[in-house]
Amino acid sequence: MFKKILIANRGEIACRVIKSAKKMGIKTVAVYSDADRNALHVRMADEAVHIGASPANQSYIVIDKILDAVRQTGAEAVHPGYGFLSENMNFAAALEREGVVFIGPPSPAIEAMGDKITSKKLAMAAGVSTVPGYMGLIADGDEAIRISGEIGYPVMIKASAGGGGKGMRIAWSESEVREGFQSSKNEAASSFGDDRIFIEKFVTQPRHIEIQVLADQHGNTVYLHERECSIQRRNQKVIEEAPSPFLDAATRKAMGEQACALARAVGYTSAGTVEFIVDGERNFFFLEMNTRLQVEHPVTELITGVDLVEQMIRVAAGEPLPFRQEDLKINGWAMESRLYAEDPYRNFLPSIGRLTRYRPPVEGKTATGIVRNDTGVFEGGEISMFYDPMIAKLCTWGPTRAAAIEEMRLALDTFEVEGIGHNLPFCSAVMDHPRFTSGNITTAFIAEEFPDGFQGVSLDAQMLRQVAAACAAMNRVAEIRRTKISGTMDNHQRRVGDPWVVSLQGTQYAVTVAADKSGSTVTFDDGTSLRVASDWTPGDSLARLRVDGTPVVLKVGKIPMGFRIRLRGADVKVLVQSPRQAELYALMPEKLPPDTSKYLLCPMPGLIVKITVAEGDEVQEGQPLATVEAMKMENILKAERKGVVKKITASAGASLKVDEVIMEFE
Fold it and tell me: Is the dihedral of CA 146, 151, 153, 157 positive or negative?
């Protein structure tokens, strides 16, 4: 077995590999850029080597710099994680020439299957059903438009070396092909150093289901069942689960055997994933093979009990797989929510900055399941503009799908993140969505169910009453505490009344609160009551309660006369007032937000790539105005309505803050 391995990656996947290596007694070497000097993976590793400037194309994807780090430290093997150089055959071949083991498939297999164009041709030659498309290289936008017309709209424009949603666009018209082709090429060149693009038919109403395979150097190849990855936004996975709620045993077996046959055909070893598009009749079509560890591998580990990183290391060291296909059963159900530094209230645009608060739920066994959190950040750390926006992968396991979802709901409500925009509320909203809980999902789920973006969640009547009762009980605790403040006026005692008015989400409840040592009974004006038990104390940012025996977790912030409460994707201002306060408050005028309709504001911190209009230009609705780049993604800002550009205040190359003015209209 290896004594020392180097992890040619960063963030949560580098931390994940280090954990398995430490469990195996293997020393680890981290590499880091300027931006990652104080990163968690650097702290966790036994050694760390600086490899260059912050941009990935000056550090993490420069092969010579990784090789230098290997030579400096004497590492015997390299784990590439995912992204960066993980599917770069030149990197694997360079390590082989150095006599260093690549913890992944051999370079010919990467060449054969890592490239999406080549892999599709091989799959077609092997008789595997594939999605119609054009597998050749595409020279320019005009050729892309011609090819798209022949295939038939809609089409998917994809980077050959792509992954993680980078370099991918869906186009429904010629104009979208021209625009998407160039953006895809730019993103592919920036992220992977390879701007080759191919085009295929976009299958409507598809499910994205993938098979995890594992092969050793002794001819053994197995599949570890499937993962359902259909909940995607901008072709980037958000929620994954294992197994799929859609597959039956026969389809699962057929897909698994086909995935293994494909792996054997190219001499594949190590962990890999064969991705399929599955239609409503359970017909499946080969999409691509990822010759690396997938982001979503934890859900497979949770249902099989197999440590995939450990097996990758053991396979690379020449050991045989310790199990056969018949040993790999499905145990329970697992969910994964990807926590991204993206603001769902701003159309999921990237958010950067310092994590002023980062408190994930406690990992390990719970009363009803398991909670796991794979992360590469820490409280006080910085979310950089140079890399992808992933913060953590929150995973839960339960004996059934419903149990795993409920476990995830509570874990998401418990997860505290402050200082940046993030998608925790959106993940919570998905977990409560009836279409998701039914399992009736496709890759169009987010576009169909959130067509106007995410504006938060409105709590249902039952949850509203639970929150109202919880806040009334918490307010009484706070009021009692305030009565005990020292230094008050002599001969004056502050009394805490029983009647209160709780206002939230446009609804008012008149309640009375009766407290005892074990909790409070909150009685509503209709005569019904809820029992609230909690050990919450004023100042706590998290309240774990039981409302009539049901566990409820609230993120709590203090506001005048009440609380800011966040749970289940909702962000609610809750006022708890005396009847007289409520009466007077109703007479207060509402403060309106400022009018910004005449300005184009930068929706996120980022770099202005280009301005496509000039002062005095008349613009039409939907016309591109500017392109902003952040976290390796290009975002085209378009006119919301017809107008005339009065003044442009930003130029290409400028770095802007969120809501900074780019241009003004007449």
Answer: negative
pLDDT tens per residue, range 210-252: 999 999 999 999 999 999 999 998 788 999 999 999 999 999 9
Which residues does 526 contact at the CB level (< 8 Å), separation at least 6?
none
Enumerate residues 6+ apart whose C-beta is below 8 A from 109: 266, 267, 268, 269, 291
Q: Torsion angle of alpha carbons 429, 432, 435, 441, nearest 10°?
A: 60
Question: Collapsing DSSP states into helix, strand and coil, what is residue 655?
Answer: strand
The DSSP element (H or E) to which 184 belongs, if any, is helix 174-192
Nearest residue to 144 via CA among 203, 79, 195, 74? 195
Report pLDDT for 492.
Answer: 56
In the prediction, which pLDDT does 484 show? Answer: 62
pLDDT value, residue 158: 87
Cis peptide before 154 (omega within 30 of 0): yes
Residue 62's identity, in one-letter code, is V
pTM above 0.70, yes or no: yes
- CA dist 292 and 82 (Å) reads 6
Q: Which two tokens stand for residue 392?
A: 């953590």
**What is the DSSP track for 252-312?**
HHHHHHHHHHHHHHTT--EEEEEEEEE-TTS-EEEEEEE-S--TTHHHHHHHH---HHHHH
Q: Are 195 and 189 in contact (CB under 8 A)?
A: yes
DSSP state for residue 130 in the 8-state scheme? B
Q: Which of 86, 28, 2, 42 is nearest to 378 (CA)?
A: 42
Question: At residue 213, what are phi and psi to the nearest 5 degrees?
Answer: -115, 155
Tokens of 486: 């020292």
pLDDT tens readout for residues 482-511: 766 665 556 655 566 689 999 999 999 999
Q: How far apart are CA 14 and CA 21, in angstroms?
A: 11
Q: Phi/psi zone of residue 245: left (φ > 0), alpha (ψ -120 to 50 degrees), beta? A: alpha
- Provide the 8-state DSSP code for 110: I
Tell how far CA 312 is from the center of its chain: 24
Pairing, β 606-611 against β 624-630 = antiparallel
- Tell me how far apart the alpha carbons of residues 420 and 342 are, in angstroms, rounded to a whole number: 8
Whether the Cβ atoms of residue 166 and residue 234 lie closer than 8 Å to each other: no
What is the DSSP annotation of 46-71? SEEEEEE-SSGGGTTT-HHHHHHHHH
Question: Could you tell me which of 56, 83, 80, 87 has the C-alpha nearest to residue 190?
Answer: 56
CA dihedral of 157, 162, 165, 166, whole degrees rounded to 10? -90
List, as one string, the DSSP characters of 195-244: --EEEEE--SS-EEEEEEEEE-TTS-EEEEEEEEEEEEETTEEEEEEES-
Q: How far is it, in rounded angstroms, from Cα 227 to Cα 218?
A: 26
User: Is 288 one of the catalytic residues?
Assistant: yes
Instruction: Check 76, 200, 210, 288 and give the catalytic one.
Output: 288
One-letter-per-residue 3-state SS of 557-611:
EEECCEEEEEECCEEEEEEEECHHHHHHHCCCCCCCCCCCCCEEECCCCEEEEEE
Contacts from 62-69 at CB under 8 Å and sequence distance 24+? 63/88, 63/90, 63/91, 63/94, 65/31, 66/6, 66/8, 66/31, 66/91, 67/94, 67/95, 67/98, 69/6, 69/29, 69/31
Please write the tens of the pLDDT for every residue from 404-430: 999 999 999 999 999 999 999 999 999
Q: What pLDDT is attached to residue 164? A: 63
